[in-house]
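1st attempt posting a full record on here, be nice pls
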Amino acid sequence: MKIISWNVNGIRANVKKGGFTWLLDQKVDIFCLQETKAHPEQLDAEVVAPFGYKSYFDYSKGRKGYSGVAIFVKITHTVDRAEYGFGIRELDQEGRQISLFFNDTKGKPLFCLINTYFPNGGSGPERLAYKLRYYDAFLEYIEKTQKAGYEIVFTGDINTAHTEIDLARPRENAKNTGFLPVERAWIDRVIATGYIDTFRTMYPKKVGSYSYWDMKTFARERNVGWRIDYFFVSKNLAVRVKKAEIFSDVLGSDHCPIFLEIAL
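the predicted structure (as tokens):
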């Protein structure tokens, strides 16, 4: 199974820039989008339901043009059910998560694919506290899902670089959100709990591999970036991972797409 994940920084803008066409041209099994910034009714029909795919959308329940995620699945794959958010009102209002559950032909759980746009911890201590509550709820959610018999594949913009190798200027950002010790410690917990960072596992010492660049400072041209977009899998799936890549040359957003190929 081939999966692409991409923070598109506005799906309507991404469509105009040709990014959505690029996604369809890849003919992957699933693609997951974050920061869509749109309700489905604001999109053209060929974006909501592109040929050969079934789509799932979550979106902000209050502020329009903000947050939002989507998953597009080839119609040849059967999704048993979809869940939106955690079932926690405070954390579900911004439309940040979709979980798709896949079962075998006898109804036995196979795996759960979760696409999440994690909050940014900027704009003061209150927002950082919100991000950390979201982090805790997410880890509890995937642990509960795994106990129900599903292997886990989760992806999205985590909004935190894990280690110094994951951003171009670690010392300058040591006190900035996205690289705070408390944020990085959560990723440590995820890994300690048994989830695998697929890209870093395949490329443990690779430097200069980033998925986000600040557009205002033309950071992409200088590759002054951050790796804050991830594919994680539960431990039992690690041996099935065939490829984990970052498509840093693909334009259309301040993030680039990331890729996972896994035998499922």
